[in-house]
Design brief:
Blueprint: E1 18-19, E2 29-30, E3 33-37, E4 40-44, H1 46-72
Antiparallel strand pairs: 1-2, 3-4
Bound molecules: zinc ion.
C-alpha cells in the first residue's frame, strides 16, 4: 500500500482523484490530501498541503519560542 497518491491506488477514486482544490482553486489537480480547514475536512492538493504544513510548523516553532521566553521571564503573563 505504498504510493497512496499515485498509480493504481487512485484509479478507483472519482475522476482518478482529480478535481478542484478548495484552497488554491486550481482545477484538474490531484486532491488527495485530507486537511481540516475551518473545522471541515477537505481534500486539497499537494502544494496546499505542503504550504499548510509549513505554516503549522512555523507557528509551532514560534509558540515554542514564545513559551520558552515566557519560562525565562515568568512574570510577563
Ligand atoms: Zn491547492
Amino acid at each position: 500500500m505504498s504510493k497512496a497518491h499515485r498509480g493504481k491506488g487512485i484509479r478507483t477514486l472519482a475522476n482518478h482523484g482529480r478535481g478542484k482544490c478548495p484552497v488554491c482553486k486550481k482545477d484538474g489537480v490531484k486532491i488527495l490530501y485530507e486537511m481540516e480547514i475551518d473545522g471541515e475536512k477537505k481534500n486539497i492538493c499537494k502544494m496546499c498541503k505542503a504550504t499548510l504544513a509549513n505554516a503549522a510548523a512555523v507557528k509551532a516553532k514560534k509558540e515554542a519560542a514564545a513559551s520558552a521566553a515566557a519560562d525565562a521571564a515568568p512574570a510577563s503573563v
